[in-house]
Amino acid sequence: MLKMMIPALALTQALAFVPLANTFAYSSTGMNAKGETIDLDVPFVPTPQPVVDKMLELADVKKGETVYDLGSGDGRIVVTAAKKFGAKGVGVDMDPERVKEAKENVRTNGVGHLVTIREGNALKTDVSKANVVTLYLLTDVNLKLKPTLQKLPAGTRVVSHDFAMGDWEPVREATVQAGGREHKIYLWKVGQGQAKSQVSRN
Ligand SMILES: C[S@@+](CC[C@H](N)C(=O)[O-])C[C@H]1O[C@@H](n2cnc3c(N)ncnc32)[C@H](O)[C@@H]1O
Q: Which fold has domain 44-199?
């Protein structure tokens, strides 16, 4: 696949240009507690609130279910899942700055009893307890996650903002107008839209 390095600032704008972002892979950096540079697979671009609401609605999040947001940014998806839907949330982000912001967001919204924010790599996160996994990453990262997601229990829902999952056919799609552009939302259900060979554990 064609790879291209674009400075972090330009990424924020480029990510909004979805067809381009679907074609290229990016490089972005953050900083750890020691002041060392860390490589992020995706820059921080928050999902607009109307899109967050629609993602959770499309995934049919229910009270008591557990929502994992991989690359959780400021924590808005898991905070909304708790506040509006009574769900438990786990947000995972590699950037300590985002983790700090998300923990503050959890605190100010009074959902600390439902939501946990962790510093970690989305690609190494155990999501086996998730009923719903939310993503606003990039297609190449989604594709790396796909084999893990497809092995989750049948019926687990995966919802992605703007970026698809290759040959895994979504069961539903929606569009939301926000911030001057159209946002795509894709919903997958584990066990649906995937070939049997794709879920083999061997
Ligand atoms: C596009 S933002 C999405 C934030 C949030 N999920 C939302 O929709 O508002 C992507 C987030 O993923 C984080 N990130 C990038 N690479 C990651 C990785 N490998 N593991 C965990 N988080 C990562 C970034 O720090 C950033 O906060």
A: Rossmann fold (3.40.50)
CA–CA dist 200, 198 (Å, integer): 6
- Strands 132-135 and 66-70, by their bridges, are parallel
Contacts of 156 (CB under 8 A, 6+ apart): 130, 131, 132, 133, 149, 189, 190
Atom of ligand 1 nearest to the CA of 76: 9
Closest CA to 178 of 126, 136, 125: 136
pTM attached to this predicted model: 0.88
HSE (CB half, 13 Å, CA atoms) of 110? Answer: 2
Neighbouring C-beta atoms of residue 158, cutoff 10 Å: 28
pLDDT (mean) for 1-17: 40
Nearest residue CA, atom 12 of ligand 1?
71
Which of ligand 1's atoms lies nearest the C-alpha of 73? 27
Distance 136 CA to ligand 1 centre (A): 7
Residue 91 Cα to ligand 1 midpoint, Å, equals 10
Which of 56, 69, 93, 161 has most ligand 1 atoms within 8 Å of CB, for mutation? 93
Q: Is 155 left (phi over 0), alpha (psi -120 to 50) or beta?
A: left
Residue boundaries of the structural domains of the chain: 44-199
List, for residues 152-183, the tens digit of each pLDDT value.
Answer: 999 999 999 999 999 999 999 999 999 999 99
